[in-house]
């Protein structure tokens, strides 16, 4: 592939954008506003654009954005899977347009779908009961920890610690802290897995739970998982499964069979619903039978040939409206039902195959293996962020960088099951081409994208949210 092809130099296509921003404006006076004076302005300026101008503006913006429909999106740990369009058609069916306050008698089909989805997820995870309420993976994680807390409190167990591996997602630490627990950080061993001796030292009568991802953040399966589960249970703690990497296990291994007591499902990572970007999403939670009474209320069950909502006996309460984000759950149901057991098993097989094939085609060191659905390559003495930005110039999206921290200059890569061999070969060539470039080229990258390198810290702390061109902001 010639990475200097003109198709990656599209700056001239976007020159009209600033002109559109500076289009004629209409000033409208506002009087007699019911809002307090400090919340109103004397006038408001709106861009005066025709419909074609507006349509072309947003079409150009869409062309400037990268998406999984543009090409590979190998963000390790984030799992940016392609969302099949048929699930959108299912969710758009008029029969899915159900008001949450309708009676159970009048929405039996919807309740049946939710009940079946609970069953699908329970069987996939090896759990006994599932709630669909949490609106995102992190929200499900927090709800799961609250279930663990309610269980311990109901049994008179005064526990104040949650053990979390150093390589865990940041949400693990946050969820435990938000639930009122002290976080005990667990180091990895030299192989990149849980340090069993360190775990033994960390566990005590104060341990409420160990939060674990399996395979872990660098794609390694925890070979000692059965022993780890026994260690946690021996001190009266619970084993929590972060479902971030379930995509590697579908049809081949179930967290419940490994000894996990609670898990959340990231349906955007595993079952191809849209990646929420803050919402709406879904993060169902599954538990073993002993913890089912503490799940959020209400849940759905079949009784006497009908479907009904019910409140678990010791429920932690409602964590989201209705049964969660209904249309996201419809999409997850459609994806699972369409693929079935064989299709889900094939998806995990291809996810693992693609990761291993890609790693074999790039000239980077991968410190930890054998890995499954993702791998952490190292950029060595180059800055991983610079290499990643240079990859943008070669027409591909780069992987996650600088994390996990125990891999120097990490480039955490997860191609998922959706890419074919040609796509992976293109990605591999971009990896190697970026690494082979000079320091100057890396430091000045990207050079061919619409947006150049930005000051990410300032952009995060002082975001510009106005539609006005920058030179107009002084007028506010």
Automatic annotation (TrEMBL):
Record region (Disordered): 438-457
Enzyme class of the recorded protein, top EC level: oxidoreductase
GO molecular function list: glycine dehydrogenase (decarboxylating) activity
Pfam families attached to this UniProt entry: Aminotran_5, GcvP2_C
InterPro entries given in the database record: Aminotrans_V_dom (IPR000192), GDC-P_C (IPR049316), GDC_P (IPR020581), PyrdxlP-dep_Trfase (IPR015424), PyrdxlP-dep_Trfase_major (IPR015421), PyrdxlP-dep_Trfase_small (IPR015422)
Coiled coil: none
Keywords: Oxidoreductase, Pyridoxal phosphate
EC number: 1.4.4.2
Reactions the enzyme catalyzes: N(6)-[(R)-lipoyl]-L-lysyl-[glycine-cleavage complex H protein] + glycine + H(+) = N(6)-[(R)-S(8)-aminomethyldihydrolipoyl]-L-lysyl-[glycine-cleavage complex H protein] + CO2
Domain (Aminotransferase class V) ranges: 143-276
Every Glycine dehydrogenase C-terminal domain range: 347-436
NCBIfam families to which the protein is assigned, alphabetical: PRK04366.1 (NF003346)
PANTHER family hit by this protein: GLYCINE DEHYDROGENASE (DECARBOXYLATING), MITOCHONDRIAL, GLYCINE DEHYDROGENASE, DECARBOXYLATING
Name of the protein described by the UniProt record: glycine dehydrogenase (aminomethyl-transferring)
